[in-house]
Amino acid sequence: MEQIGIAVFVVVFVAVIGLWFAARYVKQRRQEQRQQAVQQFAAGRGWQFIGEDESYASRWTGKPFTGWGGTARNIVVGQHRGRNVCSFEYHYSTVSTSGGTTRRHNHDFSIFVVQLPAPVPAFSVEGEGIFGGKVAEALGFERVDSGDPDFDNDFKVKSDDARFGALVLQQPLLQMLKATGPWDWRFTGPDMLSYENGFLKPELVQPRLDLMCDVLDRIPSDVWQHR
């Protein structure tokens, strides 16, 4: 019986180790496939591909650049509609403990960046989530109102400079954003930045950069002179 018990233990142990290596192999293979797809996308547009560069993980702050040990990979850099752009995959991990068990959680985001004509005050546009705009305002959320009730109820706008926010939120931009629906984007220094959950997919890069360029096309040129 003892020998049978040892044999069962060995079989289970080998099976667990085998599953662990198989999972690692599948994960590595999928990562390689994603990298190849992004690399081919960049080559097809004459853009530069960078496998990994830690400076992209620390260049910006705020959502989603949080957590510990963030990495940037599958980076593409080029020009789109006359503007300098880049896109990459951002990854970081967090750890939680519950009931004596420690778990590691992986977080992955697709990042999209368009260079602005000039550095500007911080400005962000997000969906209101479960709260409507006026409800959020009543609860004390900082916000910049556009004067368009439909827009203000669906979007939460923040800015370090209320006057700058008012200059940006003109009717052409409001009408465009009401048509697209909420998506997260912001101005941070010299860049416009947008992001979404998940690994970077080549087919998402151009549509998101087009949306960002559409926003910039609807902002009056004198806005970029504001300091």
UniProtKB/TrEMBL annotation:
<keyword id="KW-0812">Transmembrane</keyword>
<keyword id="KW-0472">Membrane</keyword>
<keyword id="KW-1133">Transmembrane helix</keyword>
<feature type="transmembrane region" description="Helical">
    <location>
        <begin position="6"/>
        <end position="26"/>
    </location>
</feature>
<protein>
    <recommendedName>
        <fullName>DUF3137 domain-containing protein</fullName>
    </recommendedName>
</protein>
